[in-house]
Amino acid sequence: MAPTPPELSLVTTTADSSALFSVRRLNRLAEALSCRTYLEIGVFKGETFLDVNVANRVGVDPEFSFAWSSHHGKDGIQLHQCPSDTFFGSIDPATTYDLIFVDGCIILSKLIAISCMHCVTVIPAR
What we know:
126 residues, 3 helices, 4 strands, 32% helix, 16% strand, disordered C terminus
């Protein structure tokens, strides 16, 4: 007789545990890379964004689901409630970020466009 497969509930994650995992992972990367600037696209409730330990944080979301205006402009935080296309169209093309996290629902073509816009500034010239 074949063994019974483990319960699926044992391998699923909740939104809270997923956010916690992302924060731990991002903070380790930020520390290892000595990041001073962080961009998060798809902030939504701010669960990950607000807990990332980087001095200057920029968050972009078309519709935040938290009291974002109480955080904007404080402790190195800038929040922009607009589509990412609008945000990238409004910033200086020379703007760079040490760490970028794309969270939430974003279509592949938009992700590729964002990556291409910033890979030139992220990869150091030799």
